[in-house]
Amino acid sequence: MLKVAVVGASGYTGVELIRILHNHPEVLVTSVTSEQSAGKRLSDVFPSLRNRYDILLESLVPEKIAEKADIIFTALPHKAAMQVVPTFLATGKKVIDLSADYRLKSADEYEAWYEPHLNPELLVEAVYGLPEVRRAEIAAARLIANPGCYPTSIILGLMPLLKKKLIDPSSIISDSKSGVSGAGRGAKVDTLFCEVNEGFKAYGVGGVHRHIPEIEQEISLLAGEKTAITFTPHLVPMDRGILSTLYATPVASVSAADIHRLYEEHYDGEAFVRVLKQGEFPSTAFVRGSNFCDIGLAVDSRSGRIIIVSALDNLVKGASGQAVQNMNIICGFPETMGLDLIPHYP
Amino acid sequence: MLKVAVVGASGYTGVELIRILHNHPEVLVTSVTSEQSAGKRLSDVFPSLRNRYDILLESLVPEKIAEKADIIFTALPHKAAMQVVPTFLATGKKVIDLSADYRLKSADEYEAWYEPHLNPELLVEAVYGLPEVRRAEIAAARLIANPGCYPTSIILGLMPLLKKKLIDPSSIISDSKSGVSGAGRGAKVDTLFCEVNEGFKAYGVGGVHRHIPEIEQEISLLAGEKTAITFTPHLVPMDRGILSTLYATPVASVSAADIHRLYEEHYDGEAFVRVLKQGEFPSTAFVRGSNFCDIGLAVDSRSGRIIIVSALDNLVKGASGQAVQNMNIICGFPETMGLDLIPHYP
Amino acid sequence: MLKVAVVGASGYTGVELIRILHNHPEVLVTSVTSEQSAGKRLSDVFPSLRNRYDILLESLVPEKIAEKADIIFTALPHKAAMQVVPTFLATGKKVIDLSADYRLKSADEYEAWYEPHLNPELLVEAVYGLPEVRRAEIAAARLIANPGCYPTSIILGLMPLLKKKLIDPSSIISDSKSGVSGAGRGAKVDTLFCEVNEGFKAYGVGGVHRHIPEIEQEISLLAGEKTAITFTPHLVPMDRGILSTLYATPVASVSAADIHRLYEEHYDGEAFVRVLKQGEFPSTAFVRGSNFCDIGLAVDSRSGRIIIVSALDNLVKGASGQAVQNMNIICGFPETMGLDLIPHYP
Amino acid sequence: MLKVAVVGASGYTGVELIRILHNHPEVLVTSVTSEQSAGKRLSDVFPSLRNRYDILLESLVPEKIAEKADIIFTALPHKAAMQVVPTFLATGKKVIDLSADYRLKSADEYEAWYEPHLNPELLVEAVYGLPEVRRAEIAAARLIANPGCYPTSIILGLMPLLKKKLIDPSSIISDSKSGVSGAGRGAKVDTLFCEVNEGFKAYGVGGVHRHIPEIEQEISLLAGEKTAITFTPHLVPMDRGILSTLYATPVASVSAADIHRLYEEHYDGEAFVRVLKQGEFPSTAFVRGSNFCDIGLAVDSRSGRIIIVSALDNLVKGASGQAVQNMNIICGFPETMGLDLIPHYP
Predict the structure, then answer these.
(1) Same domain, yes or no, for D295 and D326?
(2) Catalytic residue at A331?
(3) Residue B302: band (very low, low, confident or very high) from pLDDT cuts 50, 70, 90
(4) What pTM was computed for the model?
(5) What is the ipTM of this complex?
(6) C-alpha to C-alpha distance for B88 and B67, rounded to whole angstroms
(7) D174 sits in which H/E element
């Protein structure tokens, strides 16, 4: 059995990791940490886990955690992650980090969007853990930067077109919508039930959301040239789910059938990407609780623009499920092990 | 007192008309019709109206309805509207039609998107009732085509830029999101609670939604040239509200401050359009139950694209509130009479 | 014009007061206060009020507020209210207090459930402001204790039976359910969207909720004898609404028709209590945004138990609407002035 | 591998069965049926199942289905079930019926609440499949009547008290609340999103809900005497979950600690019943997607009444999960096989 630690287990990605790992036949969760709830049982923080995870939450002492684990999942806020990841690596353990701390290759970019990086040398080594993009590198990594939820939906939605250089790189727009769990479990007025329910809003409009450098880094690599994005996130009154509606202008006229064939071929064999039939479009409801990313495709009859709609569960393929997928690759387990989850419907 | 009839009172726009007209000091609702519920009390169909609107729903006999009313609101499905509107007009009464039947100027376009029009001669006469665009024509009209909900959010969002010819007409994208009441009160699996709740989806992707010809007709008129739109509607798990996120490429570089000043000046004096401060963006929650259309503005720092976010309540400014606003204009009442509604929050 | 102040305007009952008062033809809101948001515009705190209530929030200086107002609504947390109410009264102004501070007649009871009372002498004078129970006393009062939301639903639901002594006072159970706005606008994990949405729970089980002494005081007065209640509150994933399902054993066998007649007669002439037809039961959806309390009645065929279901909007009849109703009575305005609101549906 | 058929796979209990069975290591779903969707793929009806259950839905020909299956789950409406179950049994196959058709022991009672029974002789043989009540009988059965969702929550909530004869059988009240999926997937106005969302209502008030005879049959058996219930169901605006708040008067004074000990002992060793700590109460959110029934306990300090709160997922422990639990018992699999599901949170 693989021993794993979940560092930062009192947030939504933490509890989702536990839920998924519980069904993994080769994994044993050996320790869970939380600064604010240390000393409580995990099931006191998340009563959903009663009688299953009554283990105590520890305060984070990296060396102690590392002793008991083969792989460490860090589900901490940014900055907190980079304060402890080097210690985990120094003990010889592998780390799958769910924060933003190791996603950017450039320390300058990290500083521009966040703050000065504490261990920029690790940025070079860390592997951006999107299995559908770089499975082999992930298998060999000791530090995985698990992708953000919005970026996963956007990169998977654009990859086939980008790699074939079929779209004008200056034309890309992602109008993205997220459920509320993406905002975390902190006590804030903005995410109170009555502030969110029965409303829909845009936020971070105009190119200011911190996921932008991560998206641009990855789509530029795929396109082989500097590629920008206009990205507008929105908040949907639901717990889980991200849906990105992507717009791009093709460099030459294409049909919906062409695009569809391209995506089917590109994602052939991928267990977690479902390319929908022509004329079908995804709903977050049909991926809820699963590791799927569903993709629907159209060509706008009036402008020739390509429209791609991608949907995933932000806590699964957008966070904890993808983290387990990375773990499976690193450990040589079948990639779907513990992740063959049918979406909850309704 | 102005006597009004609400034809098609058993749908969501019908009951919303009643709610708004109830607070109008100059209006008396003299008859309400419904084919499927004729003979029942209106308050049996909508128990919210108990003790206030216990009047009987009639089957629609246009002459009978016209006798008792000065103005007739037709809140019928398309096709059903054009079957009765000519009769109402023939009796000398004015009609405010909430269906799509008189919104398009071209009978060919109507036929292409719907079916052959039964009285195409009225298409020329009907006035597309967006007060912020053509107040004077509305005042003189006897047939108002009350605008669609999506189109209202898009046209108001784009008007200042279009009139000044500041944007490339081929660059316009509207990524729009609607609450579920827009789908009406018919019994369909697609709009059951469990099918909609906790999900978010795109529909009508690729230029196939019937609001497109209406939008393009109006933005072309404003721009003074043929202007197309890429329009993607989405369904939000909430009762009310539409939010459109609009993207357009400026013909010359502009700043957010420039755009903001333009909108403030353009909408100066409009009672129901609120241009938000720079850096603020609308939520449907802040217009719920009111006749406001809120507009926020940004310029994307990376691409120079202009992003406009507009929000309204689809049942009020997107339907019944706008219909009452048109009635006020036609009747010479103050435009805000009965419509000075503070949004419900929360 | 009556000048009113809203003290504690940055909470949900505060903004709802503003919404209702805005439609009151005889009222002008002259000042609004908030400690945490003093110096901000009210519309910055509640963007729903943009362009309508851009007035500045003041820090609470009772003398300054009293100078500008004829009537003061205090929408403060308990304890904060009793710290300022005496000052308002001393200036000769009338106060309608929406907190719990003046609802209990007994200072001992107040201390047992809350803490020592700061001005117990006012408990005797304060009038528990349920117009359907004591309209005349309200008219003559200078201090109104505006009832709690749960108690209003329960007292109105039981009053006709209690006054006729038709039920066993030891048999009463209220299984009550509330929307989330009742929990206020404070930043707490418990009322985050993701904690509340898609869940239903009981809380305060076993006779520990602070509304109990208030309920028992009032139902005892109505029954003319000490009357206890078993009260279980629950949290519903919706913004607004309270529904109480009340169970009581009759002292002698009664039919549903008897009960129904009793309630119809009892509430005959009441503008805001709607006794539903036999076989009909209320939904909070049909009172949303209005000052109605809807009541449905049944007799359980198997046990003879009487079941009363009452529903109201916790922010309107359960708080701010009732406060305005009290204001109307005190000021000699028609009781429905500004309150003839049709519920929002949907 | 056990071959199973899901008859009536196009409803919510059908798709939930598929979701659960997919994770069962010993089961293969060999056929799925639907009259209205025969010829379509199961994944066309439930896109959540894309790429996993693209098998064709068949029209129901019992002999054909029985040929391919060892066990048949019938997830049909009442009446439809009893039309086919005898044929399945005649082929020697075992049946787990999720309808109401075999839950009542008395054909007269069935007729009184539903209609004349088509095969009353099977009522005697059928085993009411609540494992926590009669595990041994289930193991030996060839026809399981899978319990209703409300009854499961009520029977599990009352069982320890009933068996010990600690409560007055005439005092029992169940105030129960259900999510919307319990109403099925049929196209009805009543369960449209806009009719249900943001509202809470009682229905079937006064002893008329069809689950009553089933509840009374089972609690009478447990109590060893005829025991009635006052049962009021309510509709909660959420997809899944049932919470029952149960009230009962003890025959002699008991403490909360006594009751708690009783429940802990009674349910000791049960994998799916979680007795909460004193002072804790369940939420449907903490059992969502799992086979758990959570139970919280209190004694009302004012009346001595016992209050039991039980919560489960109506589609899992209240339907499909319990059906799989019964299948495990019948087949000799570990009772938790395929059912060790951590609740989805959030």
Answers:
(1) no
(2) no
(3) confident
(4) 0.98
(5) 0.97
(6) 10
(7) strand D173-178
